[in-house]
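Design job #97: recover the sequence.
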């Protein structure tokens, strides 16, 4: 029988000198103060493989074959035009992240969506209960809020990403921004439906992390979301190839073909798109799933 737990476990790293009263340390922010082992604040660590420590030994010696249910799914993706793709084929998600190509009157290396196209996206179909992270910039700081309301969310937080150079110690300013040079990006956080299972107050609302390619968001944000809905179904909308991650479904028009492993999703995709030669496409792109 299954003697291991499907939930993810986080442990407080308590050292002899940890002072619980001081709260949590966000090591991204306190880089000057925190050397983890010396830090007096509380840190959290994620137990690996969803396995409780005492059962790890048994798990290994039995050489149990892992199934999709046991651990995170491999990365899955669908190349699509989000203005037309039928989102109802994918089922419901616990966490959604969107980084839309807002029409913000800037030179971008990809096409943008008009305001009314953004509002018309059927994000509603992807989620009944859970959390939605929506990256916004420029005039989308307002437009993004309108979209969240349109899609049925209540905006509850706003996370900022402070951009640094590679050392993580110098704030890096880009050439974007009409009045001030921008050194940060904003991510609105909305919730809807039954939110009783979402973890609260684990992370803080600032990520300090290095700048990479144009528009590319920091990997830390995936961990923040994961800690809010551990083990949940997760989808990224307007993802690029480098965004594909274990446990996530990615949608976007720059992704290579289609790769789906969840049987339910395969079934409903085939029903909605009988003309798409799914197996053939998946065979072609299978090897690209390097994770
Ligand atoms: N978060 C990403 C950046 C996303 S940029 C990162 O971390 O790298 C926005 C993406 O949306 C681009 O890949 C762009 O090609 C894609 N896109 C633009 N219009 C689209 C459409 N109509 N349907 C699907 N994807 C679209």
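Job complete. Output follows.
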């Amino acid at each position: 029988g299954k003697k291991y737990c499907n939930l993810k476990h986080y442990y407080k790293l308590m050292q002899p000198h940890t002072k619980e009263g001081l709260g949590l340390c966000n090591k991204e922010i306190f880089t000057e103060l925190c050397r983890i082992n010396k830090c007096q604040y509380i840190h959290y660590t994620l137990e690996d493989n969803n396995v409780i420590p005492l059962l790890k030994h048994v798990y290994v010696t039995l050489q149990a074959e892992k199934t999709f249910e046991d651990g995170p799914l491999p990365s899955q993706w669908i190349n699509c035009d989000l203005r037309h793709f039928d989102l109802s084929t994918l089922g419901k998600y616990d966490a959604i992240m969107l980084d839309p190509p807002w029409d913000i009157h800037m030179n971008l290396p990809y096409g943008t969506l008009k305001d009314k196209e953004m509002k018309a996206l059927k994000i509603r179909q992807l989620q009944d209960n859970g959390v939605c992270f929506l990256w916004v910039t420029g005039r989308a700081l307002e437009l993004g809020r309108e979209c969240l309301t349109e899609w049925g969310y209540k905006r509850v937080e706003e996370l900022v990403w402070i951009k640094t150079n590679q050392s993580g110690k110098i704030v890096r300013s880009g050439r974007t921004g009409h009045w001030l040079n921008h050194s940060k990006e904003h991510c609105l956080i909305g919730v809807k439906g039954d939110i009783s299972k979402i973890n609260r107050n684990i992370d803080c609302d600032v990520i300090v992390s290095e700048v990479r390619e144009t528009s590319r968001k920091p990997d830390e944000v995936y961990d923040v979301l994961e800690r809010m809905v551990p083990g949940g179904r997760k989808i990224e909308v307007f993802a690029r190839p480098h965004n594909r991650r274990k446990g996530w479904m990615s949608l976007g028009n720059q992704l290579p073909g289609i790769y789906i492993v969840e049987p339910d999703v395969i079934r409903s995709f085939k029903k909605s798109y009988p003309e798409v030669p799914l197996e053939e496409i998946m065979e072609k792109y299978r090897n690209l799933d390097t994770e």
